[in-house]
Amino acid sequence: MKCLIDGDIVSYAAGFANTRRTYITPDMQEFKYKKDAILHCQEKGFDPNNIEKRTNPDEVQYAFANAKKIIQKCLDFTVCDDYTISLSGDGNYRKTIDETYKANRADTSKPPQHEDIVQYLIDHHGATVANSGLEADDFIGMAANENTIICSLDKDLGQIAGWHFNWRDNQLYYVSSDEADLWFWMQMLIGDTADNIKGEYRDWE
What do you get for the CA distance between the two ends of the chain, in Å? Predict the structure, then answer.
């Protein structure tokens, strides 16, 4: 069996886990959590909109170690003896169909060491970068078969029948063809707010 690992999510998870976030209030008080910074501003009469968010990454080697740990966890829990890692490339054919695709993520920041982690996955784990405007999960979906296990946290891959592993929840589970088809058509109807896609049900009103 072979693990099909979603490198996009690995790179983000490894990077954010290696980044300390702090929130600085107008009176230069530092807080670990934004809610505490907001509460402080309310108590002191400061505008919470003036809270400054700072990101402080640790040494990049720790981010690499985070990524390696996720990969090893996938292999250990699935008892696979081989793996491939897929990464999204530049461009995305979906945006040529609908320019609003993922437009709601325009302000979503990547972890500070994202590019370094991506290069690490390529250099040390043979990660493949999707081309022709495809995403990592496109590559994974095309490669999936009865001898593979999809390792990802992406709910969209629930449209692919076969074995799946969620390393965050340590869940190894099987998606039947009927379950995969059901999830596909459910997303067609309800849409996907994470990707800024409206469901077809809106036309029924």
Answer: 47
* Residues 117-152 pLDDT 10s: 999 999 999 999 987 678 888 889 999 999 999 999
Q: Residue 122: what are its φ and ψ, rounded to 5°? A: -70, -50
Residue 52: count other Cβ atoms within 10 Å of its Cβ: 12
Q: Extract long-range pairs of 72-76: CB within 8 Å, 24+ residues apart.
A: 73/167, 74/3, 74/5, 74/149, 74/151, 74/165, 74/167, 75/3
Q: Which residues contact 7 (CB under 8 A, 6 or more apart)?
A: 85, 86, 87, 118, 121, 127, 136
Judge whether 104 and 27 are in contact, CB under 8 Å. Answer: no
Task: For residue 162, give the H/E element and its range.
Answer: strand 162-166
State pLDDT tens for residues 86-117: 998 876 645 555 555 444 455 457 888 999 99
d(CA 63, CA 16): 8
